[in-house]
Amino acid sequence: MHTYSFPKDFLWGAATASFQVEGHLEADGAGESNWLHFCRKPGTIENDDIPLVGSSQYTLYKEDVQLMKWLGIKAYRFSIAWSRIFPEGTGRINPAGLDYYNRLIDELLANGIEPWITMFHWDLPQALEEKGGWLNKDTCKAFGDYSGYVASKITDRVKRFFTVNEIICFTRAGYGDGGSAPGLRLGRKEVNQTIHNGCLAHGMALAALRANAPKDVIVGLVDNPGNYVPAIETPEHIEATRKAFRLQNGQILTLIREGRYPDEVIADLGADMPEYTDEELKLIGAPIDFQGLNIYTPEYVMADDSAPRGYRIIPRCASHPQMNVEWLKFGPECLYWTPRHCHDLWNTVPIYITENGCPSADRLASDGEVYDTDRTMYLRTYLRNAQRATAEGIPLKGYFVWSLLDNFEWAQGFQKRFGIVYVNYSTLKRTPKMSAKFYRSCIAANAVL
Ligand code: PNW
Which CATH superfamily is domain 4-448 in? Predict the structure, then answer.
């Protein structure tokens, strides 16, 4: 028996996303996505990288499934590129696009790996972007239609669905901060509208999946809430931190789990509140079967009676260690606290960590291996916090590492490598890193080693 063992049925997995790993973005009749359009503007992406070939899972999926088998993962989380199925986002269907996903699904199942599918991981058909993208509620409706259509074609074999991935990243980052597609810098009210519409898209896809799938299909979403960690584990600080978690995530996760905007959020946003109806809130707040959480980095909180809401978010000090990218501060406790807050605040649904990982400055050593010591340390310490959650009875049922293999890290292009498997982008050769061997051993032992 190991010190840090997981429950017997704990689900070990790995995650990727269509735009980041597939390559061959316009093959077999696929339409252009807003991300491809964005990448084509010189100066937007580091090094002007474009994943037209990238890691090429589109052609190498069989090899990648063998890698998954070697790792011992039981589930593979990947996304479907909407514009492969509906090149213009709505209307005309491109059957060749669905054929690719059918090949991948069948290959996974033949190798004993469950497909866990994200319906939208940021690559919006460019035709819809040109009609306003996530500012336009017609996009939500189109997303529901696409999701329902795909469900009607694959739910004989696929039983696990996520509607959307990380609403804040495809809305605020794309329409407010400008660093993601479509690269706009709109005002606060409009940005809040895109966030609301992202939640509505989730609700509409949830309804469409339920309507088009047999009863054994389960549906959730993937969110990346702010991860609030009590600086000190006493009841007083824990309670303040739970409050921070609920309010700071009020426009997305709390809205979806409670079906309404918290009063404090309505007060804080004031005139910048988005437009919405009660009917929309019903769709948004409909029960989900499980909660996917992407967790990377913590925010620390202390109770403070003199603060308006009773908590204070503590700015991280300048020497706080970070992984190999600015935004990713090291803080393994968040892998325990975010599932714990979700469990404490809302009804108990199974929780899955749908992404966790870090980018390392990976290099092939002279012996042909990749010694990613920082990633191995990161995964070990974070996984111990996931194990703590399971040991305390929090319904954390599985963990997907981000990512199976090196891929296109959005605006940072190919410069940031998040894979546990190294990809040589010239030869497309895959080399499992030290962290992959570590992860494989943990899976075999069902414990953190
Ligand atoms: C997630 N942040 O994005 C995405 O789901 C993945 O596609 C991505 O490759 C992965 O995490 C690693 O970045 C995030 O700035 C990007 O806090 C940035 C942040 C969070 C998540």
Answer: Glycosidases (3.20.20.80)
